[in-house]
C-alpha cells in the first residue's frame, strides 16, 4: 500500500508503534508507516491525531484533503522537502527571459499534443476506426507548428485547436449514454466530472514533484502568472494529463464503470470519488516508456521530469517534455 484512501464518515486515524491505525465503525486496519507514501482524504467527518500527523511527517508521508470536486483543499508535506534556492533564482531569470520562457512553454505544449496524438493512434490500433489516423496526424502537425511559434500566446492558441480535435475524437468513441459532449469543465456529465476530479489529484502529485526539486510552483512559463495560482503546476501537468488521467477514465468507462453523480449536488458520490482515487493510485504505478525508451512507473516519470526541468532551468538549457511511447 503506497496510497491510503480515506472515504468513510467517522474514520479516525492514529499512530501506535510505527503503525497507522485506521478505525471505522468498530473495525480497524493497521498499516506500517513505512508502507505509506500518501494519505488522501476524500470526505468530511475524518479525524486524525496530532501525534499521527507528526509521525507521518517524520516518514515523509503527505496528507491530502480533497473537496467534492477533487480540488486539493490542503496538502500537508514535511517542511524539509524543498531543495536549494539556486533553482528558484534560475527559474525567475528564465521566466523573465522571453526566449527561454517561450522555449519552455513550447516544450510543455508540444509534449501534451504529442501525447494526445499517440493516444488516438493507440485507440486506432484497438478500434480499427480509420478516421482516428487522420485526427492523430492533425495533432502531430499542430505539435510541429507549436515548435515554430514566436509567441507564448500563439502556443496556447495552437494547444486549444489541438484540444478540440482530441476531445472531439474521444467523444465520438465513448458510449452516447454517458452524455459526454467533449471536454467541458462545467459540464455535470460523469466523464467530465471524473476528469475534473482526477486532474485535481494530478495537480497534487505534480505540486510535490516540483517542490521537491526546488522549483517555485507559482511561477510558470506557458500559463500567465496569477496571484495565488500554482501556474507551473498547470504547465507541468499538461504533459501528463493524457497518460495519467485521460487514458484511465477512458479505460474505466469503456470497461463498464459508471461514475455516479448525486442529482441534488451535481457532484460525484462519495463511493465514486473513493473508487477514482484508488484506481488513480494504482494507475500511477503502471510502468510505461517515454520517448527515449526509458521504462518507469508514471509516478517515477513525474518525479524524473521535474528533476530534469530543474536541471534545465539551472543551466538555462532547453527542456524535453514527457511524451509516452505509443502502446501497441
Give the termini distance in whole angstroms. 29 Å
Q: Indicate the overall shape.
A: globular
CATH topology (fold) name of the largest domain: Four Helix Bundle (Hemerythrin (Met), subunit A)
Order of H and E elements: EEEEEEHEEHHHHHHHHEEH
Structural class designation: alpha/beta
CATH architecture of the largest domain: Up-down Bundle
Q: Mean of the pLDDT scores? A: 91
Strand ordering within the main sheet: 1-5-7-8
Highest CATH level, the class of the largest domain: Mainly Alpha
**In percent, how helical is the residue content?**
40-55%
Biggest sheet descriptor: 4 strands, mixed
CATH superfamily of the largest domain: CRISPR-associated endonuclease Cas1, C-terminal domain
Strand content range: 5-15%
Tell me the number of helical segments per DSSP (H or I, 4 or more residues long).
10
Q: Residue ranges: pLDDT <50 for 5 or more in a row?
A: none
How many β-strand stretches?
Answer: 10
Describe this entry's structure for a reader:
By secondary structure, the protein is α/β, with parallel strands linked by helices. It has 2 domains: 3-66, Ribosomal Protein L15, Chain: K, domain 2, CATH 3.100.10.20; 85-315, Four Helix Bundle (Hemerythrin (Met), subunit A), CATH 1.20.120. The chain contains 10 helices and 10 strands. The longest helix is centred in the middle third of the chain and has 30 residues, at 98-127. The radius of gyration is 20 Å and the shape is globular.
